[in-house]
Design a protein that fits this description.
- The protein has six helices and five strands.
- It is α/β, with parallel strands linked by helices and about 160 residues long.
- A five-stranded parallel sheet has the order 3-2-1-4-5, with helices on both faces.
- α6 links the parallel β4 and β5.
- α5 runs parallel beside α6.
């Protein structure tokens, strides 16, 4: 039973605990039979930072290598977080079976990257964190609000754990 949901895009940050978001996304994928794709969007460096790097690192090959390392490190961290998630949630892993969870790490303004990826990949739903922890903060963070504003599919916002 698909409920019209064939692909779920789960968006995670790498600063905090992404278990809550992954738990919701996996649960929704199990309930709907949907494919699950995990995405992390790496915020682009500002023009000032890029210009400073270009001025101080004259070897273009070395600069390109350093820029590529940012994404490689994010991919490694995302893979580690997904592996850690599965090790902590053996019952979910067993229920998910041998279904594949695909993943991507892309660079750009996160809200734009997420919504463009959702459109290109044919995602039927986006699952992401609220990204605000304090009681006085607005419920959704800047990136989450940007995704909600731009998305053409439902966005499930997962609240963070109270501190």
């Amino acid at each position: 039973m698909s409920h019209g949901i064939r692909r779920i895009l789960c968006c995670v940050g790498l600063r905090g605990d992404c278990d809550l978001v992954l738990t919701q996304a996996v649960g929704l994928a199990l309930a709907t039979g949907a494919e699950l794709h995990v995405l992390h969007a790496v915020k682009s460096l500002s023009d000032d930072v890029v210009n400073t790097l270009k001025v101080n690192i004259r070897d273009r090959e070395k600069l390109e290598t350093l820029m590529a390392q940012r994404l490689d490190q994010a991919r490694e961290e995302l893979d580690q977080r997904i592996a850690t998630f599965w090790s902590r949630h053996a019952a979910l892993r067993e229920a998910f079976g041998d279904r594949e969870v695909t993943r991507s790490v892309l660079e750009g303004y996160p809200a734009s990257v997420i919504t463009h990826f959702a459109t290109r990949s044919g995602s039927d739903m986006i699952v992401m964190a609220a990204n605000k922890r304090s009681f006085t903060a607005t419920y959704a963070g800047k990136i989450t609000k940007g995704v909600i504003k731009r998305a053409r599919v439902p966005v499930v916002v997962v609240p963070t754990r109270p501190d």
